[in-house]
Design goal:
- This is ABC transporter permease.
- The protein is built from twelve helices and no strands.
- Helix 10 runs antiparallel to helix 12.
- The protein is elongated and about 75 Å long.
- The chain starts with 26 loop residues before the first helix and ends in a 5-residue tail after the last helix.
Length: 322
């Protein structure tokens, strides 16, 4: 004989008909449940960056610039390195069919030269950033972890470079070795030699903060050596601020290359860069402003795109700014 269902008393809910709606976890928690792992700093940062219009816009601009740098023929069929594409009788003509930006002081197609000028400017910016990031990060992580005399000596050595104006020092190096090496390589070396101290300071500060954390103490207690602690434990946990600075510095190095080329010690003809184009057009600016305006506009947009990306990455990686 089956037991009857017990009656429901007054004021008591019917437990057989009471249905509770499951609560929905946020999207980040949903990802955690799917993977079974807690969300990391980089996962949260990527989640945040995808929802920042400034980051998306900067990525689109940088992607177009990179494609323009590696495959300029996709944007123009004119080869600016071919002397036959220039006609001195049409110098400084305005925009016309087949010549979107007009012609420069030598009668060359301004649009084609602007497109091809992106390659050297971006190559110099990217490789200078890589050089400065590697040098500054390596010295910074060693100084921050070792401390003591190593930290003191390296910090005093770095202050010497901080005392040298970057553009003035790069100008001196590039002018001294001009003609003895490839102009693009010379600009990368000149900017790289003087551009690493900021990365050093940021990496050093991040390592000093991280080395007192429990995971470093545990690794040291388990017998991990200095190299393993620095590059396996400290480096991944100190990279965030370095990446932010490197992204912003990349735009600054592109502008610095343009300044050196404008002063005549950067990229040299027959190579093309935006700074060199601006230098060639400055004397006829009032008569024909377009040969200066277009490369300057591309330069400004490129530098602004990298700075916007750096700001967005900084905001995403810093929980205090979310």
């Amino acid at each position: 004989m089956s037991n009857p269902t017990p009656p429901v008393g007054p004021g008591l809910p019917d437990t057989q008909t009471l249905v509770t709606e499951p609560t929905r976890a946020p999207e980040r928690e949903g990802k955690k449940a799917k993977t079974g792992k807690p969300a990391s700093l980089w996962t949260d940062a990527w989640y945040d960056l995808r929802r920042r219009p400034m980051f998306i816009l900067s990525v689109i601009i940088i992607f177009v610039l990179l494609v323009m740098s590696f495959w300029p023929s996709l944007f123009t069929s004119i080869d600016p390195f071919n002397a036959r594409s220039c006609d001195l009788s049409t110098a400084r003509q305005g925009p016309s069919p087949g010549h979107l930006f007009g012609r420069d002081n030598l009668g060359c197609d301004l649009y084609a030269r602007t497109i091809y000028g992106a390659r050297n400017s971006i190559i110099i910016g990217v490789f200078t950033t890589i050089v400065t990031t590697l040098i500054g990060s390596l010295l910074g992580i060693i100084a921050g972890y070792k401390g003591g005399a190593v930290d003191a000596v390296s910090s005093r050595f770095t202050e010497i470079f901080f005392a040298i104006p970057a553009i003035l020092g790069a100008l001196l190096i590039a002018a001294t070795f001009r003609g003895r090496a490839n102009s693009i390589l010379l600009v990368i070396v000149a900017l790289g030699v003087l551009g690493w101290p900021m990365t050093y300071r940021i990496m050093r500060a991040a390592v000093i903060t991280a080395k007192s954390q429990d995971f470093v103490v545990a690794a040291r207690a388990l017998g991990a050596g200095a190299g393993r602690i620095m590059f396996r434990h400290l480096l991944p946990n100190s990279l965030a601020p370095v990446i932010v600075v490197a992204t912003i510095n990349l735009g600054g190095f592109i502008a610095a290359e343009a300044a050196l080329s404008f002063l005549g010690v950067g990229v040299l003809s027959p190579d093309i860069s935006w700074g060199l184009m601006i230098a060639d057009a400055r004397n006829r600016f009032l008569e024909a402003p377009l040969p200066l305006v277009f490369p300057a506009a591309f330069l400004c947009v490129t530098v602004l795109a990298f700075i916007m990306m750096g700001d967005a990455v900084r905001d995403a990686l810093d929980p205090k700014l979310r």
